[in-house]
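#data-curation
PF: Archiving a pair of folding outputs for the training set. Convention for this channel: one message per protein, sequence first, structure tokens after, nothing in between. First:
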Amino acid sequence: MASLPITRAWHIQCNNADMHTPHRHLYLAFYDVAHPRRLAGALKLSRSYSVGGQKSVHELWMTYSERDTLVQDMFALLDPDEDRFQIMALDPRSKVYTLGKAVKPAYPDCIYVG
């Protein structure tokens, strides 16, 4: 399988307020991938948009355009017969719950997206 070209703009966002603008929305993306090479590709692709997460579950602040690009890139990468990918919109006003040793996410004043 050829490597998947990812084309996105590089930019920096500062201040938590910037992440909550009407242009960016909070999503949770998660996947179950059977083959190790596709799994590594899915992880790399998800982390390129991620602001937090663990293993195969990632929090993402994205525009609609970035979301559509992520979905298209995942579709090109994954095998629909063996792999699964889900993305859901979250309400940024919702309370954060943690389990076990997890800590609530702390977003720095500046995050790098790209």
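PF: Second:
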Amino acid sequence: MRLIFVVARSQVARLESLRASLVGADDVLIVADRREAERRQPEADGTADAPRRDRRHGDRRTTDVDGSLRAIGWALVEQSS
């Protein structure tokens, strides 16, 4: 299992602090949040150039990364092998 710290882009000092504190920890990855916006598009309204209908059934994320990033500036996610 690997731990991933996702840090809000506005929290540069926290990102650097975590990287310095956890240097050499092979089972920890520290990354800045790279997302800019939700990638899912609304359903097509029938026009020819509209995006296709989203066929996914819900969100695959099990951790509330968005809420944690907004509330405390970082989120911790477990990545299983």
